[in-house]
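ok posting inputs for the magnesium ion job
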Amino acid sequence: MNAHEKEELAAFLLEAEEKKQDVVRITAEKRPNLSVEEAYAIQETLVDTKRKQGKSVVGPKMGLTSKAKMQQMNVEEPIYGYIFDDMVVSGDSISMSSFIHPKAEAEVAFILGEDIEGPGISGAQVLGATKYVVPALEIIDSRYENFNFTLPDVIADNASSSAVVFGTTVKKPEELELDVIGTTLSINGEIKDLGAGAAVLGHPANSVAMLANMLHRKGQKLEAGQIILTGGITGAVPVSVGDYVEASLDGLHSVHFSVKE
Ligand code: 0L1
Ligand code: MG
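and the output
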């Protein structure tokens, strides 16, 4: 794939994101044989464009970290994307007009105290390099019609990244047992899904370790100060106007948002 094609496909997805207008997945018409490698190259172009627009990366995120999602997409490895500063929002100000078809998932986010550079990083090393963990509600919003995509499509689309609300409870990782942390996701008081931290690759720290090892293949590392979304402990649940969405994580209290018009 040449530079012009990469830029064209990144611009196609960025326009969909800016206009809140869903599009047909890239592999349906534009590029049926898109490879995972090419998809990350499109994602990199998209990320560079956002940087040139003055946005800055808060941290990378992991996606497809649950067995169910991996089986559904027929993959053995999760994917990553990037969260930007303008995606971090307050739970009081979520407007449906900012999205195409948003879904919420409950996650634990890691705030790194030290750089982490693969290869061969373990979950234990990640815990040693992590300053704090915080609860998070990620709002994913695929730019593709009906969330209909193949693995390369969703990688190119920055792993459906759209917005995130962080909770205010901040804990050191050693204060919690993150693999058994019980989590519920409720809408208007009704539990829609639940899970434990182990749903994320056995332990959310394993997700960060895997991310460090994946980034190493590109000559990149995780950096102190980055906030990393580790992947959904619960499934992703569609949200709509009028919804009060709340994730409760044992020991980390809750994080919530309300959806307005
Ligand atoms: O954060 C995530 O797990 C989303 C990954 C992309 C797949 C999706 O949009 O469901
Ligand atoms: Mg997620």
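notes: The chain has six helices and twelve strands. The domain at 3-260 is CATH 3.90.850.10 (Fumarylacetoacetate hydrolase; domain 2).
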